[in-house]
């Protein structure tokens, strides 16, 4: 079966390739070559795709920047692209002239998530959805979630302890999924959650597979599971309407939204956006948390510094008997820097895609209508002009704010990540629990990155966890909790 599938894939690929080559012949002639940015377009159809995939993408893009400068053209995966790697050009594309560039994703991915999801849109519909998503992620909304997020994280970490090898990235994915469910549905009934989780896992697996609808393919299974997800969501929505409950979670705000004409969102639109948010929230956050574990493990000195910060809070909370407060999470300066530096080092969203909706001129160069534009976040984050000695993990660099538009782990402008504060909150709470209660050891290779498509430490960071020995904790408890009043000074 598997071999058969591979052969069919190759045939499909060849067919697309030939038809593409024929189309390309005609189109090529109209190119206004003289004003295009510098760069090489490589081979027909595959362009420079092979060069990109045969080496570290970091190095591929960095060499290009060295050779051609802040803006250059190339040809990747069948698209003519303009890459931008300077703060000014990124700001131009994402912020000041954002209306000239629309988000663009392969149709196969759009179909899996759902065409009405927020990130595929521009204009009024996008603005409306963005307000809804942002309101469920506002500081006020997040403050109300701190305790529940902490419970999810504490129980996830407890389940890992025992010294057996676990794949950190997988476990972090489970965790970020749970938080996503909490954000969207508040408390969700267990049977709904299980069905969502199982069907969503199938969608997730199909997302990066070859998009063929042939029977048995991962992509086809994913499309079928995606239909199941719509059914489950419709059931949840139906039950909620029956109960006439008005909850303040994301589903609640999507359900109660009306536009200027009084129109509500359709069930399809709601489903697409729920799947969209789950998707945007899960792997990104899981990847960031995995890197944090690695970077803390890599340097015992660094770990001690973070521990010292977190243990003060831990003791103040009666050695973990009280929940973390929102105010405490706002006051973890060292841990916060670890998060920022991890996001810079790992650059989880290495770049993003836009498409020019008209011919656009930038600094004398033409970006033709229909071309893709890719702001290269990772290259800016690893450019020694902006971040001294960029391969080095160095918390001190965040003692001053980075130069404007050089640090964009969450993007910028109209489509900037609305989940950034939630993601950071998860990372802060995770770090608090990790360093105050656990010890961990990375097993296997200590370096190397894999892309799936987000960068993750090799093999998802296989790790062993133990509950930290209780001497310190019992000592702490005795001091704070069980001691008779007269000994408290
Ligand atoms: C460390 C974790 C995360 C990273 C690095 C990250 C990064 C990003 C980036 C770079 C973008 C902009 C993409 C572009 O401009 O094309 C984005 C968009 C988005 N993110 Fe995140 N994200 C993270 C976590 C989350 C979480 C937890 C949520 C939701 C709870 C979320 C929801 C979204 C949504 C809905 C968008 C689309 C916004 C729009 O199109 O208007 N993200 N994210
Ligand atoms: C997917 O959801 C349906 C409900 O619509 C459920 O019956 C089915 O068991 C779920 N699939 C898996 C693999 O769990
Ligand atoms: C870390 O960064 C700071 C500020 O950029 C710099 O002064 C310091 O020398 C760096 N430390 C190391 C060990 O590279």
Automatic annotation (TrEMBL):
EC nos: 1.14.14.137
Q: Which domain of life is it from?
A: Eukaryota
Tell me yes or no: is Iron among this UniProt entry's keywords. Answer: yes
Q: What GO terms fall under cellular component here?
A: membrane
Q: Which reaction does it catalyse?
A: 2-cis-(+)-abscisate + reduced [NADPH--hemoprotein reductase] + O2 = (+)-8'-hydroxyabscisate + oxidized [NADPH--hemoprotein reductase] + H2O + H(+)
Q: Name one GO biological process term.
A: response to water deprivation
Q: Which UniProt keywords apply?
A: Heme, Iron, Membrane, Metal-binding, Monooxygenase, Oxidoreductase, Transmembrane, Transmembrane helix
Q: What is its main location?
A: membrane
Per the record, the pathway is: Plant hormone degradation; abscisic acid degradation
Which residues are noted in the entry as heme-binding?
A: 417
The record's section on InterPro entries has: Cyt_P450, Cyt_P450_CS, Cyt_P450_E_grp-I, Cyt_P450_sf
Q: Does the keyword Membrane apply?
A: yes
Principal EC category? oxidoreductase
Which family does the UniProt entry place this protein in?
A: Belongs to the cytochrome P450 family.
Q: What is this protein called?
A: (+)-abscisic acid 8'-hydroxylase
Q: Which organism is it from?
A: Nothapodytes nimmoniana (Nothapodytes foetida)
